[in-house]
Specification:
408 residues; globular; binds protoporphyrin IX containing FE; alpha+beta; 10 strands
């Protein structure tokens, strides 16, 4: 069957569209319960899309440094980006064709015959927007939320500046890598003269579920990942752990932490199955917690082996990351597997997990959890080499833009 293009997706209606959507998008969309007719996720709303909305399979992430100098220019950039994002997520071109035929086209074109691919574009503002080296660049220092603090040095960090930080982030997720790439490329083009790309990351497979209707994917270590994640359907947990209730401008927003975590895959692949399972604290094949039978069985941290040892070892990842070990702190994980080819110096794969998480306050959630993971058995197999934190403002109203609550 031929693919459903953006134009067809938007033009088709009723039962025919539904049938086409399932047929064209194939089993994956249907299996995730997302057989919507037009392959779109609304850009506008109380919260930005790409956080609680179902995790798509592909990521293109861009972190930008601002080169503009005035607050009004920042507002104009976020407005232009939001308008373009609203159009692209609806399956339209990034902007209208210029009337001057000598000007370059307003959309680069590579997504023209593809479906909207459930594209979501999520924007975030880094701490340096509010203060950089003690300088109040845009007169916004007084509006900086306390939760938007730089991530402090953490155990096991091997951070590289060229993979860390940034003033603004664009997280584009879609079913199709070209749709996600197209979004970041066009936003970078629109931002020329105002923002430059600092680093980017492609992700090729989701490593979490954000909805009960999604099946649990596997990460590059071969384990099911996302089982005990917060799910969007659990609105009480979302309110308690994810959405900010800031009275100023961040109400309905959230804070994003990204970590580029390289896996030492060659070392992991030499570990025995037993070692691997004891490291994570779950059974590799079924995803069940050690001592359990089913993936969704509760992790019983008190269970003992017949010889009296903890069933889930004291240094197992799921024990140390569990809310019970972290004063009930929870995060919404929404990361992606990546590979950036080959590290020619070491002759090893440069691959791993581009970890993304959302929360109300990284100082009380990601940071203490990551500190707790200092004794994680997983540390033998991973290195954190990129880190960033962003405030993701609430969603834009129709006709508005992301960041309007701060910059209007
Ligand atoms: C490459 C690095 C990592 C790998 C391979 C990994 C893998 C996993 C796996 C397989 C699970 C069990 C399935 C699940 O419940 O989702 C899990 C759970 C979890 N991970 Fe990670 N993870 C990594 C890094 C991190 C980091 C950096 C954090 C946060 C600082 C984190 C926080 C959690 C949490 C909160 C859980 C759920 C624990 C529970 O309540 O049972 N993980 N991870």
């Amino acid at each position: 069957m031929s693919r459903l293009t953006r134009r067809q997706a938007l033009g088709a209606g009723g039962a025919a569209a539904g049938a086409l959507a399932v047929g064209a998008a194939g089993v994956k969309v249907a299996a995730d319960g997302g057989a919507d007719a037009d392959h779109t996720v609304p850009f506008h709303g109380t919260h930005q899309a790409g956080i609680a909305t179902r995790a798509q399979d592909r990521l293109m992430f861009g972190s930008f440094d601002l080169t503009l100098e005035r607050r009004e220019e920042l507002r104009d950039l976020l407005r232009a980006w939001s308008e373009a994002a609203a159009r692209m997520t609806a399956g339209e071109r990034a902007g209208p064709e210029p009337s001057n035929k000598l000007a370059p086209p307003f959309d680069t074109g590579e997504a023209a015959d593809l479906t909207p691919g459930h594209l979501t574009v999520t924007f975030g503002l880094g701490p340096a927007v509010f203060e950089r080296h003690g300088e109040d660049r845009f007169g916004l220092a007084a509006r900086r939320p306390a939760a938007l603090a730089e991530i402090p040095p953490l155990p096991g960090d091997e951070l590289e500046a060229e993979r860390s930080g940034g003033d603004l982030c664009v997280q584009a997720c879609a079913d199709d890598p070209q749709v996600a790439f197209h979004a970041v490329r066009n936003l970078a083009r629109i931002g020329r003269g105002a923002a430059v790309l600092r680093w980017s990351q492609i992700g090729f497979g989701r490593t979490s579920t954000t909805s009960r209707r999604q099946s649990t994917p596997r990460n590059l270590m071969g384990f099911k990942d996302g089982t005990n994640n917060i799910k969007a359907e659990d609105t009480a947990a979302m309110r308690r752990h994810v959405w900010a209730d800031d009275p100023d401008w961040m109400g309905g927003g959230t804070y994003m932490v990204t970590r580029r975590i390289r896996m030492l895959i060659e070392v992991w692949d030499r570990a025995s199955l037993d070692d691997q399972q004891l490291t994570i604290g779950r059974v590799k094949h079924s995803g069940a917690p050690l001592g359990g039978h089913d993936e969704f069985d509760e992790v019983n941290l008190r269970a003992r082996t017949p010889d009296g040892q903890p069933r889930v070892p004291v240094d197992a990842h799921v024990r140390l990351a569990a809310p019970s070990a972290n004063a009930d702190a929870r995060i919404l994980r929404r990361g992606y597997s990546f590979t950036d080819g080959f590290d020619s110096r070491l002759g090893q794969l440069d691959a791993g997990l581009f970890f993304i998480c959302f929360q109300r306050d990284p100082r009380r959630q990601f940071v203490p959890i990551q500190r707790r993971l200092a004794t994680d058995a997983l540390n033998e197999y991973i290195v954190h080499n990129g880190s960033a934190v962003f405030a993701c403002p609430p969603g834009a109203r129709r006709g508005g833009y992301v960041g309007e609550t701060l910059l209007a």
